[in-house]
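In this section we walk through a basic example: taking a raw amino acid sequence and producing a predicted 3D structure, encoded as discrete structure tokens. The instruction is simple. Fold the sequence below.
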Amino acid sequence: MAKKAKKETPLMKQYNAIKAKYPDALLLFRVGDFYETFGSDAVKAAQILDIICTKRGAGSQSETELAGFPHHSLNTYLPKLVRAGERVAICDQLEDPKQTKKIVKRGVTELVTPGVAFNDDILHSKSNNFLAAVYFDKQRIGVSFLDISTGEFLTSQGNSEYIDKLLQNFNPSEVLVSKKCKSDFQETFGNDFHTFFLEDWVFQADYAYETLNKHFNTKSLKGFGIEDLYEGIIASGVVLHYLSETRHSKLEHISTISRIATDDYVWMDKFTIRNLELYHSTNTNAITLINVIDKTISAMGGRTLKRWLALPLKSATKIKQRHEVVNFFVKNDAILQKVQGHVKHIGDIERLISKVATAKVSPREVVQLKNSLEAIAPIKSISEHCENESLQVLGQNLNACELLRTRIKETLNEEAPVNILKGKAIAEGFSEELDELRALSTSGKDYLDQMLERESQRTGITSLKIASNNVFGYYIEVRNTHKDKVPQEWIRKQTLVSAERYITEELKEYEAKILGAEERITILEQRLFAELVEWMHQFIKEVQQNAQLIGQLDCLSGFATLAKSNDYVYPIINDGFDLDIRNGRHPVIEKQLPLGEPYIANDLFLDRENQQIIMITGPNMSGKSAILRQTALVVLLAQIGSFVPAEAATIGLVDKIFTRVGASDNISMGESTFMVEMNETASILNNISERSLVLLDEIGRGTSTYDGISIAWAISEYLHEHPAKPKTLFATHYHELNEMTETFERIKNFNVAVKELKDNVLFLRKLVEGGSEHSFGIHVAKMAGMPQQVLHRANKILSKLEKSHSSEELTDKVRSLKDDMQLSFFNLDDPLLEDIKDEILHTDIDTLTPVEALMKLNEIKRMLVKKKQA
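The resulting token sequence is shown next.
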């Protein structure tokens, strides 16, 4: 027998119709005072929110799961759903249930997703919440980032490596990708991002240009300087399309789009960003660089610092401007204290003005915006009168927004509520009509008392009484003994045993007024507040500019605080190539040392003429990796405009920082440690420039000793012989690499000093000239608490190996490398090799197609195979 179809109630019929339009979203369906979820949504919501899942129509044909919460708890539960990665469609009642006898009209008023959120409980104040779109073309990939909560809109394009770096830096909460490119995205960028897949038609050039020009009300995109970013524009169009899909139509605060100018910033690939632990660490509870250097006070400052750290400057002039401001603050502590004192009182004006643009702002937030703008006025005055030119310009560009502040002050109560419906948001004296209505609602009793007294005197009836009931509202009650004194114009409404009840025109008018007053107050307050918010739109750009400038000022004053509290120095940045750090320190490690323990500082010098590559040997735990990382971090800090942890530093501008530090295993993606290491190293070797800083740690240790030494040697040789001559630090276990200094004049040996005691070793953590001879691995094992039996056996095996051929033979083999370095197999006396040589020399590589190249290679291979068979 066929299964009976599920019976649908009118409410569920309406729900199912709306749910069908948003199949991949969790639908919050407003029913009376509750938001309800049904079916599989209810099961999911109950699990995420830890609420009870019940059954609607239990036992009937229309039985379905049900889970809900009170509508006023939306701001408590919505963030939990979004943080769990859910897309949430909020379905509200679009009409007053009292006004209809049919089922209430409902519709989705907002679609909240991880990348499109305004709720303060979802957003982190010091981090942007970016929505990204990635567009795959044949040659390049386009990318776009938009933070709807701040209005920042950025775009760029490039190869997969560059886009990967941007995705790591901007860390979007949600990434939009075409459905047909799902596997491309996952293969290229992994599975770490929260992705949403859109139909392919959204990723069309014509549609993107039309969407962007319509939004910005322009005829072309030339004014934004992005017209040549074909792939970037398509990605940007996708982002704006998604905002309209998620019911975000009021977007006046997104007033410009900028390109991420790659040429202006230091290149760091995603491995470097991860290896240097700028924002995140693979170790739980680890302190990252941002934790140490973030001395910002405002949300805008925190976000600015993250952007600066992601995009260090390459312009010596711009870096110097930042350093000069920091230096001014360091030397003028009183001004620094004053500025930071005022910044403390500035709220997140960037997000507040975005809420104004999207009509999501509350009365209390508008007052907060006004108070924040008032704190900007003294900062403007201080900056304009500073001796530093950059600060003067910053002060001149800050907007006092006096008109805006005055209007808010006149319109709103200082203690305005969070919700406009709570009342008392509009200030007294702003609206005559509102003041009258308020007087009516609050002074009703006084009015009635005055009326009673007046009518008693007029009629001479001393026992008059005014009261009300549900049948005919307000009435005057007269005892039967005085009914002959009742005026003619009074209308009798009810007769009691001992009294009669009357109404008057005045009483009826007053009743209409007092009953409608509360409702009219609410409507009028809403209208006046909406008018204020609409009027505030003209100040969006000024407030956004203030937010940017306060973010920069907060960042620079934070750098000054950092420099003063941690003893950082003013670095000299120039257009030379030398890197000279005196007594440099690791900014993070020095903060983690036990109290009273000094950080062992180190000098470091690199140039392109004499000391291009430093080969650092030394045992595990001696501090090789720390020296590598601190060098990169000192350069990085200097080029974002901060002072640096050193006694002195002269830095020739660096345009790329590459690090290969530690085994960043990618086994989850099916790659071995060694494969990951080789991928990362290949990426470095293929992208080096003359201003690059290359930091390599333990290259080759993921494979056998002979393989490892061979690879490490070949990489060092390649870097030395490369025309760019990149400055390089190479930390290694392979002492055999110390032999390279004999052949390569710009490679120098250094080691991290240790002091050998009787049965122990003391790590001095000092970088000294010369190579080290052994690795003290067994000593490290001892310090780690390895069982004595194992240590004893390891020592025995080590002494046997040292006496046998291993070490010397290996070194001899390595030494012989320099003898055959220039040796070519074409010099060997073999007619076949001569033939191959001729074949290669007579091939015009410039005109060779890939297929012809493969055929040529196959031909040479056949010649060799024939020779072998002969």
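Looking at the output, two observations stand out. Residues 663-670, 820-828 have pLDDT under 50 and may be disordered. The domain at 432-522 is CATH 1.10.1420.10 (MutS, DNA mismatch repair protein; Chain A, domain 3). In the next section we compare this with other chains.
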